[in-house]
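Z., the sequence and structure:
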Amino acid sequence: MTKHIFTDATHSRIIEMAWEDRTPFEAIERLYGLNEKAVIAVMRRSLKPSSFKLWRARVSGRKTKHIKLRHPETSRGYCPTQYKQR
């Protein structure tokens, strides 16, 4: 397995994207070169064991975390109200 070295900001963004319901693993792979297995490894190393278990339960089987399982009309990776402008 290739060892990826990321800045703290990039590492934090990968974790944030992994937690987001509508961000598929394929988007993380496209941006940072980490497949689903590598993202799981990052999450396992970065989170407390209880937080990792919660995250795994949350994303396991979730259709929005895999592009192939999504409804064909879902073309965006986030909710339109997620990034509100003030």
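The two ends are 43 Å apart (CA to CA). The chain has a mean pLDDT of 82.

Let me know what you think.
H.
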